[in-house]
Amino acid sequence: MPAHDMSLIVDLAGRDDELRLALDDLRMNRWFALRDLLLKAGGDWPLRTARSQVLAVGAGDGGAVAAWREEEPRNADALMMWARVLTRQAVRAFREDREVGLLRRAAGVARDACWTALRTWPEDPVPWVCLLDLAKLPIDARHLDPFFRQRHHRWGQAPEMGLFPGPWPLLHEADLRDPGNREAYHRMREYVDAHLSGGLAVDFARWVTAGASQGSALQVLPLYAFVAEYQRRHGNGQGGAIAFWATEQVRHYTRKARDDWFYCIPPTARSRLSLLDLNHLAYALVACGESGASWVFEAIGPYATSAPWAQVSASLGRDWQNEFRRMRDASLRPRRGRRS
Q: According to the lineage, what is the superkingdom (predicted)?
């Protein structure tokens, strides 16, 4: 299909048809498809983490998940999803700048739900990912750790000299259960961004990629940190936006994400890659003037995500979907030297 004829599909489920059916059920306040979907994922931790994150968004106020939990109070999946819903509600209250006392109460309820979930299925990394998400709130992150008093080392101590203090034990627990858990490292990056500085968030992302294997989605982590840094510098329309993407640091990590992640994945397997990661890479390649964007847009197909397009386009006063189409169309024009 010609690029200009390809419509956009902006959908929480993306290309995951099974997830879409579960989301449709949730919108009708039903939880049976949700239960079956998580049961099918089993111990596939990356799939469980990714799907449960989207399902928590689709669950809205959590009525269907609460009904499931009441019906099956010992079901590990139901307890995990309840922790997901309460965590999302607490983080949303934080973003809405709600009163501190309310935030702490919401965080405490969510924390208790996470602890119940991790006791029910100790191998599951998702409750630890949720606890990392809660660490963004204005609370003492030590109180999120159920093993805080049992740890012999100084809580929050960086694993390497020169790195910042933070909720490293929470990240360690998630990483122990699912090494390289994509969401866990993003939550840690968000913690640094919220509590410390954007510059340290970039440093953290760079440090992660240095130890990440080829083909790991963690190779894309710096691109998210760069988008957040761009918003801080140019979100109000200040000049210099083009120069930001032309810096050698940004270009280096954009090439690294392309070469050490995207190009390492066989074309037949790229349909399973995170659409958010693909969209971040496509934008960065075009903004930096690097090659390879056409292959990334082909992997994306019609499944655009609002991030990072909306975040960047807002500062320029442009419609993000038009920007996506413009960059995609320019990248998918006939080219020389095809590479898979």
A: Bacteria
User: Which contacts (CB < 8 Å, 24+ apart) does range 301-304 have?
Assistant: 301/6, 301/15, 302/6, 302/7, 302/8, 302/9, 303/9, 303/11, 303/14, 303/15, 303/275, 304/8, 304/9, 304/10, 304/279
d(CA 21, CA 256): 36
One domain, residues 189 and 226: no
Do residues 22 and 170 share a domain?
yes
Over residues 160-194, the pLDDT tens digits come to 767 899 999 999 999 999 999 999 999 999 999 99
Instruction: Supply the range of the domain harboring residue 143.
Output: 13-196
- Whether the model clears a pTM of 0.90, i.e. scores above it, the answer is yes
Indicate the helix (H) or strand (E) that contains 85. helix 76-95
Asked if residue 280 belongs to a domain, the reply is yes
Measured CA distances, 321 to 7, 225, 282 (Å): 10, 22, 14
For the chain, count helices (H), then strands (E).
Answer: 17, 0
CA distance 110 to 91: 10
Residue 27 lies in a domain: yes
* Residue-level pLDDT at 240: 64
Q: Does residue 167 share a domain with residue 226?
A: no
